[in-house]
Amino acid sequence: MQLLLKSVDFAARAHRDQRRKGPADEPYINHPIEVSRLIVECEPDTAEDVLCAALLHDVIEDCGATHGEIAACFTENIANIVLEVSDDKALPRDERKAMQIQLAPRLSNDAKLVRLADKIANVGAMLTDTPIGWDRTQILYYVDWAENVIAPCRSVSQRLSDRFDAIARDVRAWHARDGDGEKTGF
């Protein structure tokens, strides 16, 4: 429990100046907490290292933390999981997105859990706090892309896979439009 709380503290400090991209402007720290919560809800016997990595999953790519720093503060295993799910920000955005699909089959099972929960949280935000400026096409493209990313990750958790399918279905239904551009469904 101490390591988990230390991870919450580290992530909160690292993300202190960040906000989500939706109109609610919610603190970014809510996202890694949600990712960790999703894992523990669906896979309650998950090792503490994985839950810590879920809390820290964006600190390398978004906050400038290093693998070495995470390993020194936590464990080498936690640092390795975080590194596995971190995008290389030196690459152009489209290349980073393509790399997530390409690398997903080679992730460790622990990293696959984090990746799967991360995509559930991000796709879920398309219903609750869609990024400002995103239109229907972008939203549906994101859902399709996320589905491709998590496809090789599904084997690690049927419950997380089912949760992803349900939220993706809801987002697609919510953003379905009839002929005059009005939302239909909900």
Characterize the structure shown.
The chain is mainly α and 186 residues long. It has one domain: Hypothetical protein af1432 (Orthogonal Bundle). 64% of the residues lie in helices and 0% in strands. The longest helix has 20 residues, at 109-128. Residues 178-186 have low confidence and may be disordered. It holds the Pfam family HD_4. This is Phosphohydrolase. Keywords: Hydrolase.
Chain-wise SSE layout:
Blueprint: H1 2-14, H2 30-42, H3 48-56, H4 59-63, H5 67-73, H6 76-84, H7 93-103, H8 109-128, H9 136-150, H10 158-174
Descriptors:
186 residues; mainly alpha; Hypothetical protein af1432; 64% helix; 0% strand; globular; disordered C terminus; MESH1; Phosphohydrolase; guanosine-3',5'-bis(diphosphate) 3'-diphosphatase activity; HD_domain; hydrolase
In short:
This protein is mainly alpha-helical and 186 residues long. It is built from ten helices and no strands.
Global shape:
globular
Please state the average pLDDT score: 93
The whole-angstrom Rg is: 16 Å
The number of helical runs is 10
The portion of residues forming beta strands comes to under 5%
The CATH first-level class comes to: Mainly Alpha
Amino- and carboxy-terminal Cα gap: 40 Å
The low-pLDDT segments are 178-186
**In which range does the helix fraction lie?**
55-70%
Oligomer: single chain
Largest beta-sheet characterization: none
H and E string: HHHHHHHHHH
CATH superfamily assignment?
A: Hypothetical protein af1432
CATH-defined fold name: Hypothetical protein af1432
**Number of separate strands:** 0
Structural class: mainly alpha
Total domain modules = 1
What CATH architecture label applies? Answer: Orthogonal Bundle
